[in-house]
Amino acid sequence: QGKQKKVRKYAAMKRMISLRDQRINEKDRAKAPVKKKEDPSAIKEREVPQHPSCLFFQYNTQLGPPYHILVDTNFINFSIKAKLDLVQSMMDCLYAKCIPCITDCVMGEIEKLGQKYRVALRIAKDPRFERLPCMHKGTYADDCLVQRVTQHKCYIVATVDKELKRRIRKIPGVPIMYISRHRYNIERMPDDYGAPRF
């Protein structure tokens, strides 16, 4: 005769006594939560990001020609691959004067890429580019660009990076310029400035 197998109960737990049980001593028992009375004069706090008043009419009123465009490292590299002139292609896309802006950290990223990206570095040092100084440490540009467009809503961000695009889409009133089919396109742009709306 074989031994009968004992089936183990799945996820069996020992039953625990509640801390409010009558059998537990008074000093060991869990205290009932004391409700605080709400002060009607106190300022009610909510963690909701405050949108600036410039976005009141559904779009950014600070954004107008000449457009200031924050350029990312990969945007310059992809422009070279697509054989596009940066400033001219921006003007063709927006039908207005464009001022490409480059931050110190983006410049540092391009310099770090080395000899292979010397053409990108030469383009970034173009006198038509406006240089923006950075106060933060390191050369990680994504955080810097997101922080800049959150504080000042007067920029268009030019990037091909999917992660950076995802972060910028969460900020209201900031258009994104990207490259597709060997030309520049713009995402989330108000109709009023003659640019296409997507």
Automatic annotation (TrEMBL):
<dbReference type="GO" id="GO:0006364">
    <property type="term" value="P:rRNA processing"/>
</dbReference>
<dbReference type="InterPro" id="IPR006984">
    <property type="entry name" value="Fcf1/UTP23"/>
</dbReference>
<comment type="similarity">
    <text>Belongs to the UTP23/FCF1 family. FCF1 subfamily.</text>
</comment>
<dbReference type="GO" id="GO:0042274">
    <property type="term" value="P:ribosomal small subunit biogenesis"/>
</dbReference>
<dbReference type="GO" id="GO:0032040">
    <property type="term" value="C:small-subunit processome"/>
</dbReference>
<dbReference type="InterPro" id="IPR029060">
    <property type="entry name" value="PIN-like_dom_sf"/>
</dbReference>
<keyword id="KW-0539">Nucleus</keyword>
<keyword id="KW-0690">Ribosome biogenesis</keyword>
<dbReference type="Pfam" id="PF04900">
    <property type="entry name" value="Fcf1"/>
</dbReference>
<feature type="region of interest" description="Disordered">
    <location>
        <begin position="24"/>
        <end position="43"/>
    </location>
</feature>
<comment type="subunit">
    <text>Part of the small subunit (SSU) processome, composed of more than 70 proteins and the RNA chaperone small nucleolar RNA (snoRNA) U3.</text>
</comment>
<feature type="domain" description="PIN">
    <location>
        <begin position="67"/>
        <end position="166"/>
    </location>
</feature>
<dbReference type="InterPro" id="IPR037503">
    <property type="entry name" value="Fcf1_PIN"/>
</dbReference>
<dbReference type="InterPro" id="IPR002716">
    <property type="entry name" value="PIN_dom"/>
</dbReference>
<protein>
    <recommendedName>
        <fullName>rRNA-processing protein FCF1 homolog</fullName>
    </recommendedName>
</protein>
<keyword id="KW-0698">rRNA processing</keyword>
<comment type="function">
    <text>Part of the small subunit (SSU) processome, first precursor of the small eukaryotic ribosomal subunit. During the assembly of the SSU processome in the nucleolus, many ribosome biogenesis factors, an RNA chaperone and ribosomal proteins associate with the nascent pre-rRNA and work in concert to generate RNA folding, modifications, rearrangements and cleavage as well as targeted degradation of pre-ribosomal RNA by the RNA exosome.</text>
</comment>
